[in-house]
Amino acid sequence: MKVIHPISLMVAAVALLAFSVLGVPVHASDMDDRIESSAKESYVFKTYLKDDDIKIKAKDGVVTLTGTVSEESHKSLAEETVAGLPEVKSVDNKLEVKGERPAEKSDAWILTKVKTTLLFHRSVSGIKTEIDVKDGIVTLRGEADNQAQKDLTTEYAKDIEGVKDVKNEMTVAKTSKETKETKETRTAGDKIDDASITGLVKMTLLYHRSTSALHTKVETMNGVVTLSGKASNAAEKDLATKLAKDVNGVEDVKNLMTIE
Predict the structure, then answer these.
(1) Which end of the chain is more exposed for a tag (fewer CB within 10 A), N or C?
(2) In the predicted model, what is the mean pLDDT of residues 164-193?
(3) Mean of the pLDDT values across residues 24-40?
């Protein structure tokens, strides 16, 4: 016993030393690998950012984004999505936008905002809607599944900063049955990860003129979005709930915002 006891202590000490020297870096490395993998496999990166050249590097939970994206909105969406991943402490966004950036509130700038916003919402079809902008006036063309979808497309487009008016020339489908595309979109939406949902909701609230000034914190757990922060009145709070609920992948919204 007198011989075994010191040996046991020595083995324990060596194991402890090995853990302290090697264990923490390995743990941190595993965590960083998970972060990088989760970002690359997220719905946002595989759907909206798939054509961009984005490199993701995590170190001790701090993520650095480098590379190029096609437009400013993609830069923000990438950051918001990564920031919503578990174990991420902060994001250093060094992404660069390719080409010239359109002037703020120019027709090209408005077009990008409207197009992006319609893509995020599941009750409208950003893919099937043709968008033209001239002197701040947005013209919508294409086919809506029903009158309600057409009206909602107008409502969403009107609420984008810089839009002066909307002319909706969309036709309404003769049958109100769900199209194959709509069904596929909703099916895909059910599989959207929480970080992607958080990023999409944040961008949606930022892009809509009625909620852009709100300081809203967004958290998502199993598709359920929790909003916190401050709203000027009940109407703003209700609108934030409505817009968030219509984002792809959102199962429900808990609005904990307080009214100033």
Answers:
(1) N
(2) 69
(3) 82
CA distance 43 to 81: 9
Split at pLDDT 50, 70, 90, the class of 176 is low
SS3 sequence of the chain = CCCHHHHHHHHHHHHHHHHHHHHHHHHHHHHHHHHHHHHHHCHHHHHCCCCCEEEEEEECCEEEEEEEECCHHHHHHHHHHHHCCCCCCEEEECCEECCCCCCCCCHHHHHHHHHHHHHHECCCCCCCEEEEEECCEEEEEEEECCHHHHHHHHHHHHCECCCCEEEECCEECCCCCCCHHHHHHHHHHCCCCHHHHHHHHHHHHHHECCCCCCEEEEEEECCEEEEEEEECCHHHHHHHHHHHHCECCCCEEEECCEEC
**Structure token digits, residue 242:** 């409505």
Residue 81 has pLDDT above 70, yes or no: yes
| CATH entry, 107-181, from 3.90.1720.10, 3.40.50.10490, 3.50.40.10, 3.30.1340.30 | 3.30.1340.30
Position 27 confidence tier, pLDDT thresholds 50, 70, 90: low
